[in-house]
Amino acid sequence: MALLVAAIALPVSSQNGTPRATARIVSADSSDVYRPFQFDSSEMEMLGLVNRDRAATTSQEETRGRALPLQWDPRLAAVARAHSEEMARNGYFSHQSLDGRQPDERVSDARIPWLATGENIARASDVTQAEAMFMDEPKFQQNHRGNILNTRFTHVGIGVARGSDGSIYVTQEFVQSR
């Protein structure tokens, strides 16, 4: 049986300088204390793939050589992991959370300051396939590839979760930090 492969890119959003309301991320035990989680090796593998793609000679035309390696942000990774886990647990695939929040709202709710944000999601058999799907898109477009190569982005968090059918759900959260 063939594995369903799907991916959706969300264009970059920019804040207009207007103050935004923030909310606490509350854990299952009702505390609002941020608790770091264990990084999955597939998340670290994907970080390497993303930064490799940003530095690749095949990307130079798009980045003009200005795409610095993205810095890992554990807060973004927590947001990404939570979204991937929600999609895997509930069998859906969307940028919108079940509670109706969009990616920029999830990032803001985690009290992560940003000037620009973007999100990639994928459902694939492994992170290598997901990253290849992201990068196998037209150049110079607002798509997965564009998010990965966006020279404005400075930080990334990646979350990977396995669905009941064995596929993985990948969320990449990008920000240009303040």
Write up this protein.
The chain is built from six helices and five strands. Strand 4 and strand 5 (168-176) form a beta hairpin. Helices cover 33% and strands 21% of the residues. A five-stranded mixed β-sheet has the order 1-3-5-4-2, sandwiched between helices. It has 178 residues and is α+β, with helices and mostly antiparallel strands. The longest helix has 17 residues, at 74-90. Mean pLDDT is 84; it is low at 1-37.
Identify the notable features of this structure and list them briefly:
178 residues; alpha+beta; 6 helices; disordered N terminus
Binned strand content: 15-25%
Q: What does the average pLDDT come to?
A: 84
Please trace the helix and strand order, writing H or E for each element. EHHEHHEHHEE
SSE-based structural type:
alpha+beta
Q: Describe the sheet with the most strands.
A: 5 strands, mixed
Helix content: 25-40%
Distance between the termini: 46 Å
Q: How many strand units?
A: 5
Q: Give the count of helical stretches.
A: 6
Question: Strand sequence of the main sheet, in spatial order?
Answer: 1-3-5-4-2
> In one word, what is the shape?
globular
State Rg.
16 Å
